[in-house]
Amino acid sequence: MNDADPRPAAADTTHFGFREVAATDKQRLVGEVFSSVAGNYDRMNDLMSLGLHRLWKRHFVATAGVRRGDVVLDLAGGTGDIAALLQPRVGAEGRVVLGDINGDMLAVGRDRLTDRGLVAGIDYVQCNAEALPFPDRSFDRVTIAFGLRNVTDKAAALRQMYRVLKIGGRASILEFSQLQAQWFAPIYDFHSFQVLPRLGRLIADDAASYRYLAESIRKHPGQAQLQAMMEQAGFARCSHRNLSAGIVAIHAGYRV
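The structure assignment produced for this chain is given below.
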């Protein structure tokens, strides 16, 4: 590549689904996806997962070790599903900070939680997981559900999660992962690449965004790789647990 070549070097590129794009463009492209799907996000999640995402999220919060009085940061909090489950667990003495980089998703989440009467103890912050605007050791727990795979620099986000945790604090990650039951792979691939885009076109008039979401799952680090990344970020006692044969996995690590 000569000096006049405007294309980014390989080290400056990343994946956006199956496409290779400039790393500086991914945040904008992901933002466009979630701005497009914000209004239909929850309904599409129900259709895409046949309602399983609600069970995964309940199990995720129930096993996150959240206690009464905790201050919890929920990253990529989107439409507020996780925050709604966290709020009664932290109680009146605790707080939940719902953070999301996308203003449209954050607005939908705030409106839906307010409509449900979930107001006390929940704050909203538009923030980038790669550069969190919080002091060191601010939170007892950090959670992120179905958001890490959309982050451009996942290692930076993990380091930030570690930084803002108090000593003894725990980070919990719920994310799509690598399917462990290979007999199910053809069915899973058909659902991901044939059914989801068609549902997106039918329900949200947006097939491309849902094609990206399916592709982003395949590009996300698998169970062992993500656990190793957490260890590299400084987390101790790291573990992961598969749900639904590895379609999703829960990763956890502690700051010590």
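Interim note for the steering committee: Residues 3 and 9 are 11 Å apart (CA to CA). Residues 1-10 have pLDDT under 50 and may be disordered.
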